[in-house]
Every structure is written in structure tokens, then in C-alpha cells.
Amino acid sequence: MSTRRVEKLVESLGIAGLSKSQVSMMARDLDAQVEAFRTRPLDQGPYTFVAADALVLKVRENGRVVNVHCLIATGVNAEGYREILGVQVTSGEDGAGWPAFFRDLLARGLTGVKLVTSDAHAGLVAAIGATLPGASRQRCRTHYTVNLMSVCPKSSWPWVRTLLHSVFDQADAESVAAQYDRMLDTLAEKLPKVADHLDAARADLPAFTAFPKQIWRQIWSNNPRNDSTRRSAAAPTWSASSPTAPRSSAWSAPCSPSNTTNGSKAAATSAWTSSPAPARPPPPIPPNRRTPHPPHSPPDR
After folding, report:
1. What integer pLDDT is reported at residue 1 of this predicted model?
2. Is 36-138+222-235 in CATH node 3.90.70?
3. Residue pair 207/115 in contact by the 8 Å Cβ criterion
């Protein structure tokens, strides 16, 4: 981390005039905190749902700026909250990067994984199969949409995208499968390359349908829409013996007061039981206007 970047950061906090030695001390302190976070035990499991992805970053090594891959895994813990499980920097996603990353997560306590959401990178897919053999893989909807767009004619993309979205808009697993078939039949004659691409992705793209409908939006993509500390609808009430039926009302009402923690229960209860807001008071009269006085009645004579 450069001195200039640290100076800009601390200036936003009202601190100015950092020396190089102070920056080095801050970096050492941050390194220790990051290392403690990366190596902490994963004791909040089981982590039923895991999302894995990688970011390409530029770093300075031996006086040169090179690209590295930052591997990131996020899971839903036993309390139903998203949690960053691990972060690891490697030279690339191929080879031993992803397998070593998942083995480190398992050694730290990762258990109970039923579904991993990721893109279709060959190294990542192979690592999931090798290290998490009991887990299904959901191909990320967002990443796949970009992949499909690359093989689709530009003029036909709005129509194809609408067809693809219609698959995810279905109400149950049977309807998703039926709509997928109709989509392939529609595209087979007009856009055979697009139809082949969709057919090849069928094994992984609708994997979310094996889980309750209420959490489909949370697990069909590894691009989180909510803050990592916000409670996920994928609460840990999934039952291996009955994957399509909830064990409690947490699936049907993921935001109910009984499913909130960390001090939010009272707020949720108040929101659920509050009465309608009272009528708004009339707006105040502007200061430059005066209320007209009633006309004077003639005095009694």
C-alpha cells in the first residue's frame, strides 16, 4: 500500500501529515488484523449456501505492478447471516489456487455445504467437485447472462434475454423445467448456437429449484444485493430430508420478528404490530401571509 493512498485515506478522517514510518506501522497493524480474520475458525456453521468468486487486482511486487487474483467465499451461517468465509490472493485461478482455498476453508471448519454458487471457470468448477463432493453447483445467473450475450446476435439479444428471464420468473421447479424446454424449442431453429449454449448450461443453471422458492433470488447469483451483515432470507431451516418444505415459518416469513437477532427483534416487532399512522396536520401558514380577519359587524345602536 502506497504512502500516498494511505494519506488520502486518513485525510478523509481529519488526519494530515503522515510520515513513511507511520504508514509502515499502520500497514503492519492492518496485516495482523487481516491475517487473524483470514485464519479464524469457521464455527458459526453449518454453512448451507456458499458463493465463490474472484477479483483481479493490481499489486506491486519487487518494484513491478502485476495482476493477482483475490479468491473470495461468502456463506450463510447458522443464524442466517451472510459471512465472508475466506479471502486468499493467488497468481491465477487455474492450477492449485481454488483447491487450496477450499481445503483451507474445510480445515478451518466449513461444514454442511449443500449449494455453491459460482461462475463456470474451469478451475473453480473442478475445485468444487474435488473438495465439496456432496454439494450441488449453481451457475451464477449474472455471469451466465454475460456469457450468453457473447454468442447471441446483438439484434436478437433483447428477445433472448426476455426468454431467459422468463425461466427465472416461474413459480415452482416444474414450471421452470417446462419453460426451459419451451425456450430451447423456440430458439433451436432461429438461433441454434444460442440454443446449444443454453442446453449445455442446463445442468447447473436451474440448480436453485431444488431449494425453497422463498430463497431463489438469494442463491441463483453470487452477486450479493444486500449488505453482508443484513440477515439473509436463506435462514438455516433447510432440512435434508425435505428440501422443498420448510421446517418452520422462517421460509414463508423470513423477516418476521421471530427470525431477527442482534437487537432487531424489537424493531421488527414494532414494525409488524404498529397501528396506522395518524393523519398529517395541516401545513403551516407561510410567514408572508396573514390569516384574514372576519369582517367587522356594525355596532349595535
Report:
1. 58
2. no
3. yes
64-76 and 82-90 strand pairing: antiparallel
Q: Rounded to 5 degrees, what angle do the CA atoms 199, 204, 209 make?
A: 110
Q: Nearest Cα to 78, choosing from 114, 119, 43? A: 43
**CA 18 to CA 5: how far, in whole Å?**
11
Planar angle of CA 91, 94, 95, nearest 5 degrees:
95
User: Strand locations in 151-198, DSSP E?
Assistant: none
Regions of the chain where pLDDT drops below 70: 1-3, 95, 224-301
The answer, as to whether pTM is greater than 0.70, is no
Residue among 76, 77, 67, 119 at smallest CA distance from 98: 119
Q: How far apart are the first and last CA of the chain?
A: 94
Phi, psi of 65 (to 5 degrees): -100, 120
If we measure between CA atoms, which residue out of 49, 50, 51 comes closest to residue 143?
51
Tens of pLDDT, residue by residue over 237-294, are: 343 333 333 333 333 333 333 333 344 333 333 333 333 444 455 555 455 444 444 4
Beta strands 115-118 and 136-139 are parallel
Q: Where are the domains of the chain?
A: 36-138+222-235, 141-219
